[in-house]
Amino acid sequence: MKYLYKIVLVFFMCISNVSADDIVLLDKVNTWVNRNIEYIPDQVLYNTIDYWATPKETLKYLKGDCEDFVILKYFLLLQYGINKSDLLFMYNRINRGFLVQSHIVLVYKKNNLIVLDNTRNTLDSLSSRDDLTHRMFFKVDENSPRKLKIVLDKMHEQSLELK
């Protein structure tokens, strides 16, 4: 289990024929994570209402909920050279017809706002996502939400190298 995170990174590099184009990389990471990680609520997987998993935990179970997808995508993109300052977490509400619920997506903001979402295998501009009602953007830094800081602390304890 110690090397699973790095094995996935190497495997992904081998199968993806990664280009220097950020959009191609964003699309490949988004699609790979969405296809290989099964959505499952925290209550089922971790027996708690809101648990934020490290990339290692998500890869261990190959399951997670929306913030677990975002965290995994975020750190994979960092490993492939996407600049930390170009990535934002966006907490929002997603409208799914009769159901409106809290949701987190990853947003790439270099040229315009591009959404990486576990509910879609496509990259969409934020302006085209009328199902998302923006609540709050945040970065991974000293002002991150407490749950994200806990993830970062666990990653440090697990000796996962971060850029």
Structural class: alpha+beta
Classify the helix fraction into a percent range. 25-40%
Q: What is the rounded Rg?
A: 15 Å
Measured distance between first and last alpha carbons: 21 Å
Mean pLDDT score = 85
CATH class: Alpha Beta
CATH fold call: C8orf32 fold
Main sheet characteristics: 5 strands, antiparallel
Write out the strand line-up for the largest beta sheet, numbering strands in chain order. Answer: 6-5-4-3-7
Q: What is the overall number of helices? A: 6
Report the strand count: 7
Strand content: 15-25%
Architecture (CATH level 2) name = Roll
Order of helices and strands: HHEHHEHEEEEEH
Shape: globular
Summarize the entry for a quick read.
The protein is built from six helices and seven strands; from the N terminus they run ααβααβαβββββα. It has helices at 4-16, 22-36, 42-45, 55-61, 66-79, 146-157, and strands at residues 38-39, 63-64, 87-96, 99-108, 114-116, 124-125, 132-138.
